[in-house]
Amino acid sequence: MIRHAADLPPERRDNIRGGNGAGFAKTYLANGDMHGVAFVTEMTLEPGTDIGLHRHHRDEELYVVPQGHGTGLLDGERFAAGPGDAWLCKAGHEHGVVASAAEPLRFLAVLSAPFDATSSSAGR
After folding, report:
1. Is the pTM value of this prediction over 0.85?
2. In this structure, what DSSP letter does residue 15 have?
3. Does residue 70 lie within any of the structural domains?
4. Distance (Å, rounded) from C-alpha 90 to C-alpha 71?
5. Cα separation of 90 and 19, whole Å?
6. Domain range spanning residue 30?
7. C-alpha distance from residue 18 to each of 51, 53, 54, 78, 113 (Å)
8. Which of 67, 110, 119, 124 falls 20 to 30 Å from 85 in CA-CA distance?
9. Residue 21: per-residue pLDDT
10. Is the dihedral of CA 83, 14, 56, 116 positive or negative?
11. pLDDT tens per residue, the chain (124 residues)?
């Protein structure tokens, strides 16, 4: 399977997870494309846009930032996020992200397929 960014039209998404503003998604892998992965999506958030704080119950999500700056949210902690930064939201925990008001924020979101959360580790 080969995916070229030029072949993936960005899909506009408004008010993601109850957040404010607009984001654009390029989905590289969808559910069923790779064992254990629900999706791999490149998200670009417009300046000042946020993905609302949300909990993962039976899956885990990794954010990796290649470009832009913002504020990461993980279990009540707020932290600066920029190029090269990543954070993992484990099952049972909550996270979100806010793009800087000065520039778009681009990050890769990798979501695991749902699993039995009782067998996952409780750490973050």
Report:
1. yes
2. S
3. yes
4. 18
5. 20
6. 9-112
7. 7, 8, 9, 18, 22
8. 119
9. 96
10. negative
11. 999 999 999 999 999 999 999 999 999 999 999 999 999 999 999 999 999 999 999 999 999 999 999 999 999 999 999 999 999 999 999 999 999 989 999 999 999 999 886 655 545 4
Question: In degrees rounded to 5, what are phi and psi of residue 94?
Answer: -130, 150
Domain assignment of residue 53, yes or no: yes
10 DSSP assignment: P
10 Å CB burial of residue 70 (0-12, 13-18, 19+) is: buried
Indicate the length of the chain as a whole number.
Answer: 124
**Do 111 and 59 touch, CB atoms closer than 8 A?**
yes
Let me know if residue 119 belongs to a domain.
no
Number of domains in the chain: 1
Closest of 57, 83, 49 to residue 69, by C-alpha? 83
Closest CA to 120 of 88, 90, 87: 90
